Amino acid sequence: MWRGGKCCLALRVPRLGRSRAGLPRAGLGTWQEDEQRQQIKSQDFYDREAEQRRYFYHIDLQGRLFIEDVMPKNVATCLKSDKFLSFFFSRLRPNTSGIHRDYPLMSPCGKEMNFIKPADTGIVFNEVDWSTREFVFSGGARQTLDPSAFSMSSDNGRLYHRLSSHRFAEALGGWALLRSSLALELSETAMRFQGRPSHRRALL
Question: Which PANTHER family match (predicted)?
Fold first, then answer.
């Protein structure tokens, strides 16, 4: 149902515990932002790797992409070109290169190899286009919002949605984090219509 340009959501959000496979868990395969400065390597390392056309990046909890050694990391220093982001994220996949194993993800580009450390999932849903009921993410990629496909981690309290539109969705774990502002927006939208007879009760 649609009101004021937005879908009246009735979200079912089970909390998944530690035994449930696939959902990201705090301290397991995540790279916390407060450790980032310690993780930055020497300039000699980056120069040597650049000679081999290997580059290193970080994805934060908002889905923003940064060159690893850039400091500070904020809206002014993240990479912003939609064309580049679309190309980069469309090739995102687990690191199966056999090198730099401390980087869980990679994004190959011809003879170049980009290695990535995500703060959580590699794909982060940034916003919702309410006119089409689709998530928008990673430089303009889209996926249909499914109210039955949300889950909340019992370890970190973050909200996730099943990832299906990415070509490597299953290899990437099958989940996408929702950026905090989007999770709040969806929660408020669901709660606004909580208890109305024509809608299931929102569980956010």
Answer: UPF0598 PROTEIN C8ORF82 (PTHR31449)
